[in-house]
Amino acid sequence: MRSAATIDPLMGIQGPARDWFTNAFPNGPTHAQRLAWPAIAAGENALIVAPTGTGKTLAAFLAILARIERSFEHVNLNPGVRCVYISPLRSLSRDIERNLNVPLDAMRRSLESAETRVKVAVRTGDTPASSRRKMRDDPPHVLITTPESLSLLLAQSAWDENWKTLEYIIVDEIHALAATKRGADLTVSLERLSRKSNRDPARIGLSATCRPAESVARFLVGPMRNCRVLDATEPGGPVDFDLRVESLIAADEESIRTLTYRRLLRRLGSIIADNRTTVVFANTRALTEKLTHDLRRSIATDEPDVDFERIAAHHSALPAERRRAVEAALQDASLKAVITSTSLELGVDIASADVSILIGLPGSVSRCLQRTGRAGHRIGTTTRGVLLASTAAELAGAAVTAHAARRGEVEPLRAIRAPLDVLCQQIVGMACDRDWEIEDAYQLIKRSSAMKNLDYKDFYDCLSFLAGELASPAGAYEPEPGANPRWTSARLWRDKGWFGVRSRRIIRWFYANVGTIHAEESVRVEVEGIEIGRVEADYADRLAAGDRFLLDGRSFEFKRLKGTTLIAKATGADGDLPRWHSDRQSLSGPLALALGKFRERLGFVVESEGFAAARSFIAQKYLLNENACDVLIELIAAQIQWSEVPDPSSILIEESPCEDGFDYAFHVPLGRSACEAMGRAVGARLGRRLGRGLGFVVADLGWSIRIPGGDRLEACELAELFSIEGFHEAVLEGVDRGDLLARRFKHVASTALMVLRNPEGGKRARVGGMSWVSARLFPLVKAACPNHPLLRETKREVLDDLLDAPEAIRFLETAPSIRLRRLAGISPLAAAWIDPSANETLAFESPAEALKRLHERLAGSYVID
Amino acid sequence: MRDSRSGLFDGPDGWLLSPEGGLIRCDERIAVIADVHLGYEWARAARGDLIPAHTLADTFTKLERMLDRAPIDRLIVAGDLVESTRRCASTERDVASLRSFLAARSIEFVQLAGNHDAASPGLEQSAIVSEWTIIHGHITVLKENCKFIQGHIHPVLKASGIVAPCFLTSPDTIVLPAFSSNAAGVDVATGALPPGLKGRPLRCVASSGDDLRDFGPVCTLSERLRRYRRR
Is the Cβ pair A772, B230 closer than 8 Å? Predict the structure, then answer.
């Protein structure tokens, strides 16, 4: 009953929607819903932060449905879209539509009308052309779509009328978009959408736990608007949160993968038998397939009560219908367990799962919470998760991940600053819609959060590039004497302060290439005639005789490339068993730091207080059982015996001999992106002195550099290697010497529509081969136009988004001591955390010198004839 | 084996190999190149790419370097002068520029047919120079036991991150590398060679851009590189 003294829990919900809700949810609204409805009904911008399973969909929608429904009472509702819902997942769209139809249908019945008055429609890449036309001519009140489809609709002037009535924009799973280029693209689309409406539509963001929430809110609304953060998470981290870490290996034993794998199967079998429904995150597709197959077999023998047919696999390579069938079976609880790579991490509601099992490390607290949150997904149930570790390094990583997850220490999101490739695509999309005054377009774009700091010069350079009018600076490469580079297929015309699209052809190309997600071109890998997976085409193209590569954790030797098939042979003893360890997978910066501190602390306790004290330290703080504690103590004790445990206030370098020279493992207490910055700087300085190629591997908490030939690192040069003076230049050189920029440029060129992913006619010019863009176009653009905005964007992305130079410098400013130890072999910590197969060559010699050296070495060791 | 003065490399039967990827006969003042793929950028543009024009300038640079090594009166392009198999105005302009470039140096231009040259029907399939038959290599038009020169497959040597265009030579066969820097090629150590080249005692002579180096028999190259990597 409503009274003046109590606050109406259904405030903001009126009419038939209210009646339906009261009937359907006699316990009343959730915390998230109570917070959301009044704000939404008042037309405010709001970010709703709530864990999965707290009724977020209704929190966002019900007040809007009620409002649209009520507007029928006054007038005959004009056609036009009232609400756009945008989700990063296409698979969520159908779910949402279904979920909305339940209340709408109930309202229809209560009004005794023949059809629902509020129309809902889904518009994604799957929508057939006939429905698209129908939707344009007779728009729904609620449009459910994806960022890419929205971008397409905005490029069509025929939709302009439909947007005039827009009042609400909902962005779901916004935490998954905020720190990505896809999200940056969406923010510009939102500004264009808002401009097309008669009023500035209210924006509603839905997010799982995110940090800092204010910056996600800013991401949603841009610099000019206000936004309320409605946080429905429990303060001080999730309550009822049960997350355990278990070790699959025992102390005092050699790690044997086949044995660990059998233990993994047994443990999974028993957890599955003990629970109604289990979700298993296996990280890779290969392990997902193998586990599903083996679990069905072993459960058939070990757990006769469990119907093994009720175990299914779910990963992104399965056909969409199959995935949908598995999702449906999960929802009606007809499945006992589902094994997934990562594809069930977001979105789709898994109503009945009791427990989530994570095999290996999720990499970050936010992913850990996202995955474990898939279980206990009903309102009021406990979240239960189990992290299964199969190496000592993985166990240490799992211990700190779980510790941080229990405390709700979600990593802060790093916003992306004005990505110019996204800008280029948006400019083309805007021109497809209509002609623009340049200044007006710039001002509109700057209203978005991602582009708020966009320089006019950057904007103008992108326009010039798209208009085919980008000039070379004096002295750069001249294709013809005296001329600036001629650019093929310009997208835009530009004249008297205006710009627009050149032809219908450009519009067609935009439609076929919209979006910032690039499925890598890949080649199939065959071993003895059997397809065992796919690798990136660019990568395959670089492989040569004798090269080895990893696929789903297994090691292969390259034999030859035959069209788009890579013929390989398996190497190593465990050839048929995928390696599932993710101990060398990157951890978030904060987790890597926590891990460094944990290792050091454990080393200190082991050395000063003994094993018993160490055991109780781990058991109490990290909640590990005795066996797991012993595994970690053993690793640290071995490191102490062999070398030393790195002290987080110093840099430890361990030298060890390798097949063709020396490996240097560098231990610094920093996350991967800061390690990558510092490692490249050190690599550049070393390479400069030696004048030859070095092997570089980056890891969490360090990196390794291989110096081939007889050269060694000397103690007297250490201070210089880590000098702050000229650090940024050294980082840049270390980036330039490797192939990171070229690899990233390919994606940048694709997003900016410089090179189309889906070329006209569907076929690419084959002569250039699979890596033409990174191997040929990248140096070509550098020569023709060294200051090209897309080269600047590539560099920005590498330095700002992938590397963390400021963090590296902050550490160097503490003047850490630097120690070099020469060891007879690689230390236990280096072996556990640095993956030698992820090797990148930093080239300090010209291709001509490299060829000459190869020739001399081949001739020196073998008779050439 | 190498002529240090001109940077040319002695090939079979009096042919000289140039680091740019051409063959030269000083006695007849003739050069042979193949797979120029002029207008590569226009062909990509027709499929939607927005990239800088570069192939013509690159071709001029390489030709000038080659002509500095030895004077010639005739240039034979052994097929695939252009990229686009359809008529393309921009490509035609580039071909005209190439013709005037050569005419200005009094060099006769001979174009043979390749699989990309469909827009110029009626080209000769082959030419004969000093008892060597020059063909593109996409269709076999050879008599038994004849000495021949071909292009088409764009051979490259790949190893340890290096990709170097290379010649394949034997006493009666020469395969030219692509003159175009845009052409990705067949990795001679691991890739399959066409049937017409199988069983011939081919050697790999790779170019660093400034000079050429003999990497020995193609048939053992893969194993030698593998052993070098595994050492």
Answer: no
What's the structural domain count of chain A?
4
- Strands B212-217 and B203-207, by their bridges, are antiparallel
Residue A857 lies in a domain: no
**Chain A partners of B85 at a C-beta cutoff of 8 Å?**
none
Q: Between A438-446 and A181-196, two packed helices, what is the crossing angle to 10 degrees?
A: 120
In a domain, A721, yes or no: no
Among the partner residues B163, B183, B213, nearest to A855 by beta-carbon distance: B213
pLDDT class for A330, splitting at 50, 70, 90?
confident
* Shared-domain flag, residues A623 and A762: no
Please indicate, yes or no, whether residues A247 and A340 belong to a single structural domain of this protein.
Answer: yes
State the DSSP code for B97: H
Give yes or no for residue A333 having a pLDDT over 90.
no
* Residues in A touching B188 (Cβ below 8 Å): none
Task: Using an 8 Å CB-CB cutoff, list chain A residues near B162.
Answer: 847, 850-851, 854
Cβ distance B40 to A767 less than 8 Å, yes or no, reads yes
Let me know whether A254 and A226 are in one domain.
no
pLDDT at B5: 55
| 3-state SS track over A103-157 | HHHHHHHHCCCCCCCCCEEEECCCCCHHHHHHHHHCCCCEEEECHHHHHHHHCCH
Distance CA A382, CA A385 (A): 10
Of A490, A776, A854, the CB nearest to B160: A854
pLDDT tens profile B152-193: 999 999 987 789 999 999 999 999 999 999 998 899 999 888
Mean pLDDT, chain A, as a whole number? 86
B40, B49, B216 member nearest A755 (Cβ): B49
Answer whether residue A480 shows pLDDT above 70: no
State how far residue A492 is from chain B, nearest Cα, in angstroms.
11
Size of interface A-B (CB pairs under 8 A): 186
Query: Apex CA A826: angle with CA A824 and CA A829, to 5°?
Result: 135
Res. A67: pLDDT tops 50: yes
- Chain B segment 172-211 residues within 8 A of A by beta carbon are 180-185, 187, 189-192, 206, 208-211
Residue A631 lies in a domain: yes
Question: Comparing C-alpha atoms, which of A59, A47, A50, A49 is closest to residue A227?
Answer: A47
Q: What does CATH list as the number for B2-230?
A: 3.60.21
- Rounded CA-CA distance A408/A402 in Å is 10
For residue A228, the SS3 value is: strand
Contacts of B40 in chain A (CB under 8 A): 765, 767-768
Quick check: A216 pLDDT over 60?
yes
| CA–CA distance, A22 with A19 (Å, rounded to integer) | 5
Give CA–CA dist A201/A45, Å, rounded.
9
Q: Which two tokens stand for residue A714?
A: 């000397």
Determine contact: B96 vs chain A, CB below 8 A.
no
Q: Tell me whether B171 touches chain A (CB under 8 Å).
A: no
The three-point CA angle B181-B24-A855 to 5° equals 60
List of chain B residues whose C-beta atoms are within 8 Å of the C-beta of residue A540: none
Residue B47, min C-alpha distance to chain A (Å): 4
Residue with tokens 């427990």: A355
For residue A221, the surrounding DSSP H or E stretch is: helix A213-221
| A612 or A839: which leads in pLDDT | A612
Phi then psi for residue A465, to 5 deg, are: -60, -45
Distance, in Å, from the CA atom of A144 to the CA atom of A172, rounded to the nearest integer, reads: 11
Report the complex ipTM: 0.94
> % helix / strand / coil in chain B, to the nearest 5?
25, 30, 45
Nearest Cα residue in chain A from B41:
A488
Q: What is the rounded distance in angstroms from the CA atom of residue A378 to the CA atom of residue A382?
A: 9
* Closest residue to B53, CB basis, from A485, A543, A851: A485
